[in-house]
Amino acid sequence: MDSKNFRIPSGCSICGIMNKKGRVFSGNDIIQSIALMHERSNGLGGGFAAYGIYPEYKNYYAFHLFYSDKNAKEETEHFLHQHFDVILGEKIPTRKIKSIKNPPLIWRYFLKPDSKRILLSDIEEENDYVFSCVMKINTYIKGAYVFSSGKNMGAFKGVGYPEDIGDFYRLDEYKGYIWTAHGRFPTNTPGWWGGAHPFTLLDWSVVHNGEISSYDTNRRFLEMYGYKCALQTDTEVITYTFDYLVRKQGLSLETAVKIVAPPFWSEIERLPKKEADFLRTLRYVYSSLLINGPFSIILGMSNGMLALNDRIKLRPLTAAVHGEFLYVASEESAIREICPQPHRVWAPKGGEPVIGFLEK
Amino acid sequence: MALSFKMPEFLIKRQVETCSKCLLCVKQCANKVHYYDEKNDSFLTADENCVGCHRCAVICPTRSIYILKYPLEFRRNAYWTEETIKQIYKQAESGGILLAGTGTDRDYPIYWDKILINASQVTNPSIDPLREPMELKTFLGRRPKAITVEGKEIKEEIPPKLELEVPIMFAAMSFGAISLNAVKSLAKAAQKKGTYYNTGEGGLHRDLYQYGSNTTVQVASGRFGVHPDYLNAGAAIEIKIGQGAKPGIGGHLPGEKVGEEVSKTRMIPLGSDAISPAPHHDIYSIEDLRQLIFSLKEATDYKKPVGVKIAAVHNIAAIASGIARAGADFIVIDGFRGGTGAAPQRTRDNVGIPIELALAAVDSRLRDESIRNEVSLVVSGGIRNSADVIKAIALGADAVYIGTAALIALGCHMCQKCYTGKCNWGIATQDPQLTKRLDPEIGAQRAANLIKAWKHEIKDMLGGMGINAIESLRGNRLMLRGIGLTDTELKILGIKAAGE
Known about the structure:
By secondary structure, chain A is of the alpha+beta class.
């Protein structure tokens, strides 16, 4: 788990599919889509996020954990029993795949926060309590890493090509209304499963292609507000940025986008005064959360999906709609692989978000 | 009179064959180094008067004047150096404290030069400022902890702030310490480049009111020239607690420099020394500072940001945190390299700490206390070039002040004799014969050029790092690496070693 301490730049492929009506579908499509972009990853990381997969436990926080050894598991389970009612704890079912080597111990737990403990703590919201527990496990328990902590959703990731990781986790057997995927091309060999995408926190998940030049500015800002960037990865910082802006600051997703990838000052000055003032203030107040450098990201949420490029579009991103489905991917081919004739296909401009919310 | 042991520092040589005898050197040297003997048609020099300001050499149309180090070898001694011995002679003769101008010239470590900047290769494309937008716009002020958005409207009122087109401002230098033409040069340059200059504790001369929107007015312990019109004339107010060149003591303007205009502007008697008290006599602790901050806000109807300038001293992090909590909108930290028109030499050379370490410590502390985003941080004290600016911002500053570098742009040759009032370049003097040598239009152009040049360089380096907005560099310490630094220094700076 030493790789926690190194920041590793990487190139990648990403894609996401969402059913706007909230109808669930199996993981086969997303695996097929990401598999087409095989060349964009190098077998050192792949992963998926899926929403709507645990309907029978939808009221409980679903923690997915990697353990490097039994001690880490024992220590974490002790912590979980202290802080939550553990409704269920089980091994995440996997298949034996030749190319997937040395997986860690992979467990999941469905948890109900201990309300008495929340009352006794200085934390007001249940979400913040869960957030702080995740931060504690990831920071203080050696060999344990929570890689998924939302409700009715889950991340599945590891070291390998994404299609093999999908097969390994038996994603064909899950059904969700939003799926995102990631194939990774890191520039060195971390060999650590936690380093793969997506990165998640509560209901947020992020898959990301790019490298953030503003990493330390963003990280040091977020760390003032209780976030611990244990992984030293760019993607973790993006996840926390949205969590901070939307969940903690109470801003809308659209407003958060204007902070993360704001228009240039020259563009702002050309806008009508009211809008210019609005954008100017956002840039002023949250200047440390501008995400600089090349990126395309797909942010998954329980109620929708957001895809976004950096403001000068230094990484590829294509979007498409067809019927109830919204598709986004690094390459158009990855969309046409599973939806050959979409109604509309477009390449969003830098800083221009593609946002899909569930229609219910 | 007893024999003086003082010997010249420089030796003037004249190449007689090329000298055109135009006598410019004789006319222009305020220190009376050159003398023309008409009877013998020859030049004499009073070498002991030469301060090494190069005025005569630079204006000499035939390049016939050479200024050399005076050949006076002392017996080699690593402890009792030539400088130490000369200072003792001086004090034995005068019985006074030693005075000095500009920042300390001693050989302390320069951390800027032990920090290297990153650039992108392959995994992250560098951004070309010739082809892509590159944003340096910077704001200074207090940021709210949170905002509420309704539609496209922000409910909270945002506190007043300064808007800078480039994260560089001209540091506090008073009319008195420097000439009105020098102040005008900086004021005009600030206006041209969309930034600010600072009055120092010199008050605001009537000719300078027109530059109000590019002016930061200072309130120092002497309160010279402070009145409601003054406070309201500027874009921001800065309370000066201390300065890097002389932490712990107040400003000192020798009476020689207090002419009629300075006297009127400062509201002090003609020819009198303007000696500011060491502390503000209404600030004996942090809660008093809070009262002054809010008195000034009241006086200006909460329309202007109010900052506090302090010298970088040992406990700087805790002090800065207190100032942030006292309500300052921005904090200025002046490092021990900071310049001055006049300071006791012992203080200048021995008190305070380097700005690089002070800045890193303050930025880290404000973050540990989760208040860094609420207050802006400006640093000064020896910023020499655009790379220093980049490093300062990456360590955590919002913007920098330049003082010495700006004066050098106007023609300062760093002779360090500002306190004598005989500046041959028309900068640190009030003698009308000397001040007229600095044309404020030309001065403004030179200072503006310096900012323009640095701006280009900053954009290049920023683009190299794959960043296209200066705010993404602020506090971005991963963009820095240390070279030749100890573990403790690296830890304080919060940066990794080169190769890590």
